[in-house]
Amino acid sequence: MASLRLLFYTNDMHKYLLTLVLSIALILPASSFAAAPEERFEISGWIPYWAVSAGTRSAKNHFDELSAVMPFSYSVQSNGKLKDLAGMDKRTWQRFIDDAAKEDVRVTPTVMTSDGAMVHTLLSDATKRKAHIEEIVDMVEDGDFDGVDIDYEGKRAATRTYFSLFLKELKDELDGKFLSCSIEARTPPASLYRVIPATIEYANDLQEIGKYCDRVNVMTYDQQRADLTLNDAKKGTPYYPVADPDWVKKVIEFMAQDISKNKLVIGVASYGREVAVTVSPDWFQSYASVRAVNAPDALKTAKKFKVKPSENKAGEQSFSYLPKGSAIKLRDLPEAPRGTSSGDEVAMRALAYANKTGKSVVVNLVWWSDANAVKDKVQLAKELGVRGVALFKIDGEEDKNIWKLF
User: Fold this and answer.
1) Are 196 and 306 in a shared domain?
2) Same-domain status, 327 and 346
3) Does residue 309 lie in a domain region?
4) β-strand partners of 278
5) 47 in the same domain as 67
6) Domain check: are 325 and 290 in the same one?
7) Residue 109: closest CA among 138, 130, 131
8) What's the predicted TM-score (pTM) here?
9) Per DSSP, which regions of 270-316 are E strands?
């Protein structure tokens, strides 16, 4: 009998609950039962320590667009202590952090180093690793930051396990604070090698990084000549991209095999490079770094040498010119082939000269990422379904039209 009463009681309760749910459904608007909103597409960026005033001002002007800001601020010393390069304890930063909190913008300063040997020594020793983690956690707590961004570049393959352990232990000690990791882009082997090695030892364990880091910022910039497949496919004119979307796509799809797209962020450059290109018969033989450039400086240089920049094969902006002091004068160069873009004109005239005379010529090539190039990366990020994009860098000299994209 008890079982029978329980059965009736249960049936009555089911009817009651169903009636209650239907009644609520009639009262509440349909939107109350809508599916949960998708995760917000994030726009973040780094403010460099060498441009604190202009960078914080630019970022504050765009808090409405930004989800997070990463002050590019702390370097790692050989003893594991942090060196504050940006004056994070100064009033400028305190006001910035307060304003960011009001706008729900996450602030996670970057701890950076490119000394692979030092990182191995530091992280492979349990005592030193623990002290280093404590140093980072104290920095986050003392500064009242939302978390930290780890950017340890140039690591050795032998450090891979220790770096993963470091991230695991750091995440535990942060006690719920945000951990983002900024790591190098990984070009698929088929595009990186003419002959793929039997064994490839990587410095980053992507699966472990994806496990412990709340965001993984992939530094998909400074591609330059890294992708041999694209170098071959796009030869004929100078090719020295900051980040060709074709390269970014293959990098992200490759890395997404090990890291959730919900954590992946595409690093997008707001700067460029100037290189000296040796033009020899039939090819652009070599590219030697001259300097980094920002959009205003690039346009100023173009104006000085009376050259009109144009969009190149990577969807970025570039132009070539004969540098001051060149033994070859512009009047000495043959005409460029019909259909040559304005940005490639001097380089193509130099190639025609090299083919005609058998002599090499050096031209300078200025190549940078403008708003249209950033737009391509934002669209690509959305197509690939990753979490967002991160600008390197926000320093007041980024193309102002970038912010109109968001």
Assistant:
1) no
2) yes
3) yes
4) 286, 362
5) yes
6) yes
7) 138
8) 0.89
9) 271-280, 283-294, 310-311
The CATH number linked to 176 is 3.20.20.80
> Within this chain, do residues 143 and 91 fall inside the same structural domain, yes or no?
yes
Contact assessment for residue 286 and residue 270, using Cβ atoms and an 8 Å cutoff: no
Place of tokens 């004109």: 345
Does residue 282 sit in the same domain as residue 222? no
- Is 358 part of any domain? yes
- Decide if 227 contacts 357 (C-beta within 8 A): no
Same domain, 235 and 334: no
> Which range of residues forms the domain containing residue 255?
42-270+370-405
The secondary structure of 191-258, three-state, reads: HHCCCCCCCCCCCCCHHHHHHHCCEEEEECCCCCCCCHHHHHHCCCCCCCCCCCHHHHHHHHHHHCCC
Residue-level pLDDT, tens digit, the chain, 406 residues: 333 333 333 344 444 444 443 444 444 444 333 433 457 899 999 999 999 999 999 999 999 999 999 999 999 999 999 999 999 999 999 999 999 999 999 999 999 999 999 999 999 999 999 999 999 999 999 999 999 999 999 999 999 999 999 999 999 999 999 999 999 999 999 999 999 999 999 999 999 999 999 999 999 999 999 999 999 999 999 999 999 999 999 999 999 999 999 999 999 999 999 999 999 999 999 999 999 999 999 999 999 999 999 999 999 999 999 999 999 999 999 999 999 999 999 999 999 999 999 999 999 999 999 999 999 999 999 999 999 999 999 999 999 999 999 8
Tokens of 264: 């992946």
| Domain presence at residue 113 | yes
